Amino acid sequence: MLTIKRLLSSIGLMLSLAALSSASAAPAEQTAVFAGGCFWGVDAVFKHVKGVFDVVSGYAGGSAVTAHYEQVSDGNTGHAEAVRIRFNPAQISYQQLLQVFFSVAHDPTQLNRQGPDVGSQYRSAIFYTSVEQQKMAQSTIQQLTAARTSSAPIVTQLVPLQQFYPAEAYHQNYLALHPNQPYIVFNDKPKLEQLRKQFPAWYQ
Fold this sequence. Notes:
This protein is an alpha+beta fold. It contains 7 helices and 8 strands; from the N terminus they run H-E-H-E-H-E-H-E-E-E-H-E-E-H-H. The chain has helices spanning 4-18, 39-47, 69-72, 94-105, 131-147, 174-177, 182-198; strands at 30-36, 52-60, 80-87, 113-114, 117-118, 124-128, 157-160, 164-166. The strands form 2 sheets. Strands 7-6-1-3-2-8 form a 6-stranded mixed sheet, covered by helices on one side. A two-stranded antiparallel ribbon has the order 4-5. Helix 1 packs antiparallel against helix 4. The chain starts with a helix and ends in a 6-residue tail after the last helix.
């Protein structure tokens, strides 16, 4: 059976070759928005990926009126805890970010939860910003599903990004500011170690 990492690498190569003809026209900055459980750990993972120069924790999928932690935590606002990633596509591609998202940042088979956190605000979701991102995410999910890389189905939602709302200041860069908090130690630091082991060339 192919490992998730090997399969994602193959998918990335195929999609990269398909997009090669348009690479020279790619902008110097692109944006990705991913939701994969509590944003503290997802934020920390992508902050350690080369080519990523800005990561913000926030909310996507709901309205501005309820984009506040206390309300989002109720699980009734439609938001997901998410991260907005700004990256240089000349250094890291969107497909490579998808590899990190599916294999390191979270478990895409958990429905409306992630580890100890339960509720629709912790759902797995990709908020795509272009048709190209949508196609790459769809292709990745289809091929992971066909390869049966896990015993449970992938439940990641694909949703067009309507708006992203930055979270409160105390949520930003949370792992770096609270490295010894028990939640961080048990749930999020292991993700950074997996990133370093699985993708050493991309780790920073």
